[in-house]
Amino acid sequence: MTRRVLLTGGAGYIGSHTYVALVEAGYDVLILDNFSNARRSVRERLARITGRPVTIVEGDIRDGAALARVFGEHAIDAVVHFAALKAVGESMARPLDYFDVNVGGLTALLRAMDGAGCRRLVFSSSATVYGVPDVTPTPETAPFRAMNPYGQTKILGEQMLDWLGRSNPDWAVGVLRYFNPAGAHASALIGEDPHDIPNNLMPFVAKVARGELDRIAVFGNDYDTPDGTGVRDYIHVEDLARGHVLSLEKLFETGQGHCVNLGTGTGHSVLEVIAAYKRACNRDLPYTIAERRPGDVPTVVASADKAAEVLGFRTEKTLDEMCASSWRWVCTTEGDA
Ligand code: NAD
Ligand code: WQD
């Protein structure tokens, strides 16, 4: 029997890659997205990659009536919930929007799922729930530390799901804490495509490589790290997408939830990322050393042991492959609608 999975926010960066991985794994997949941070052309691109028509319902996760319609019209076995606002700086300026979409939207979704008797969910969480971690590589047992409203919404989401599971053991929830997703699909048809000046390192470097921005500002080179610049655990988005397939399989197989980090277990500095991207694009990538970015931490690296043990998840792709796929993607995007 083919299982049907709803992806909220499935037209976005991580959701679109997960769509492909799930279709390739034999799932029947449906997307709900309001296109607040995605392009409509993703439908055609996903169809080209998978060779099948793509079902996208345009709607908002805060709209209970729309959600009830989706669950009423389609027999959905599980949901992967990507839809959220995700910019840390913006969350400081507009916290209510973050509470509204990330917490209110999750509540509306859970209510609709409960009403439809669909109680299997994979939730997009983030390494941001650890704030400034005391231990590196960071295990899932590290305490929650909110550093900004965005991080707080991910902590609240995890806590809501925990209490829900305690209230009704029919709920099976996979909480996936992503570290730093990077790279693009091998087809170069989907990838990360920020509308504005990117906040994150990899898309910023990509725009400098393309000549759209002049130079990279390296936020501090006096951290307690091997070369003084910030160290992060970059994970290829195709590896990340595969993690969702394994998480769903585990939920279906066991009926039990899990909470795991999705990272490689290895850190790379800002200067290492720039050097790797330079190898990929074969261009000069000018940078200057700037002030530290407020709220940044020296090192954030996942302990990848639990995901390996619980899901059998191991990453396969290197930083060089993340940069090469990102470069192929940004060279082929033409800024379509
Ligand atoms: P994204 O912005 O590319 O994707 C989110 C999608 O949700 C977009 O397509 C957007 O249009 C949609 N959306 C937003 N609000 C909606 C609403 N109210 N109703 C319906 N759809 C809505 O982001 P992404 O990088 O793919 O992130 C996906 C998830 O992973 C998010 O929950 C994010 O917080 C989490 N996450 C992302 C990262 C990262 O660095 N990219 C890291 C950790 C966790
Ligand atoms: C990486 C490194 C910067 C930009 C953020 C969120 C986190 C998660 C992933 C959603 C750091 C340095 C960056 C630049 C730079 N998102 N940098 N110049 O901060 O680890 O994580 O995205 O859940 O919640 O906080 O990622 O890509 O912004 O930064 O030097 O122009 O690159 O200081 O060391 P971060 P990032």
TrEMBL record:
A molecular function GO annotation: UDP-glucose 4-epimerase activity
Pfam families hit by this protein: Epimerase (PF01370)
GO CC, any one term: cytosol
Ranges for domain NAD-dependent epimerase/dehydratase: 5-263
Keywords: Carbohydrate metabolism, Galactose metabolism, Isomerase, NAD
Pathway(s) served: Carbohydrate metabolism; galactose metabolism
GO terms under biological process: galactose metabolic process
Cofactor(s) essential for the protein: NAD(+)
Catalytic activity annotation: UDP-alpha-D-glucose = UDP-alpha-D-galactose
Enzyme type, top EC level: isomerase
Keyword Isomerase: yes
EC numbers on record: 5.1.3.2
Source taxon at top rank: Bacteria
Family of the protein in this entry: Belongs to the NAD(P)-dependent epimerase/dehydratase family.
NCBIfam families associated with the record: galE, PRK10675.1
Subunit organization: Homodimer.
PANTHER family xrefs: UDP-GLUCOSE 4-EPIMERASE
Entry protein name: UDP-glucose 4-epimerase
